[in-house]
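Lab notebook, bench 4. Still working through the backlog of constructs that have no structural model yet. Next entry is a single chain of 129 residues. Request: give me the structure tokens for it.
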Amino acid sequence: MAKLTVFYDYHEEGIVPILLLLRFRPNELDFSKNSLYVPLGSPFQQLNMEEINEFDAGITVLLEDLIVHPERPHAIGISLSSLKLRHATHLEGLFDIQQLWLRMNDIEEVLQMEVRTLYPWSDSRKLPK
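Model written out:
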């Protein structure tokens, strides 16, 4: 299963999760499947926005790529078919992709629930000011 990393930044209400990164091992992300479901309660690494490695290639998962399954209420689905269709011109390179980027706002909108509470900022990490 993918490794989850949540990136945080300052917002009006304090330090909040902004992005969810799914990092896969080589050849683990299977684009021959139609969808992928990620349990939102999984353990995760927390980093601040300044720690994003600009050289990490990946695919941004858009709002329209997210799906909900009634039998998986605590998971977010990703339409791999939609990603394949949108990136059809780079299909060969898709199999080398090891990262998917999701915006927390999009996840919350699709699930119609606040998921940020699942990813509170731990006081053991301090954001740089």
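Notes after review: The first helix runs from residue 80 to 86. Residues 65 and 109 are 12 Å apart (CA to CA). Flag for follow-up if needed.
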